[in-house]
Structure formats: structure tokens, C-alpha cells
Amino acid sequence: MFSRKKENVELTSFYRKEFFHLLINPKMKILYGNSILR
After folding, report:
1. DSSP class of residue 37?
2. Is the whole-model pTM more than 0.70?
3. What share of the chain in percent tops pLDDT 70?
4. How far apart are CA 10 and CA 29, in angstroms?
5. What angle do CA 10, 4, 17 make, to 5 degrees?
6. Contact assessment for residue 32 and residue 22, using Cβ atoms and an 8 Å cutoff
7. DSSP letters for 8-34
8. Is 38 helix (H, G, I), strand (E, B) or coil?
9. Burial of 29 (0-12, 13-18, 19+ CB in 10 A)
10. How far apart are CA 3 and CA 17, in angstroms?
């Protein structure tokens, strides 16, 4: 259960990092948004 929680924390930090990169790079944000809509 502890290792499961640790995995979730690592995933969350990963997504937070990705989101931060999207905020920095608007072009990537557009590409990312298009891939989600598709």
C-alpha cells in the first residue's frame, strides 16, 4: 500500500512537471490540446 502511494506521488509530480512545461511553451500546449481533442 505504501509503495502504491509512492507511485501515485511520482505520477502526480510527473504530470505537474508536464503541465509546467505546457505553461512555458504555448506551441506545445496547442499541440497537446489537439492530441487530447483527437
Report:
1. H
2. no
3. 79
4. 22
5. 10
6. yes
7. HHHHHHHHHHHHHHHHH-HHHHHHHHH
8. coil
9. middle
10. 21
pLDDT of residue 1: 54
∠ CA(34), CA(9), CA(27), 5° rounding? 25
Q: Determine the pLDDT at residue 7.
A: 80
Q: Containing domain of residue 17, as a range?
A: 2-35
Of the candidates 32, 2, 3, the residue with the CA atom closest to the CA atom of residue 15: 32
| Total count of domains within the chain | 1
d(CA 25, CA 9): 24
pLDDT tens figures, 18-32: 777 777 777 776 776
Please give the distance of CA 5 from its chain centroid, rounded to a whole number.
18
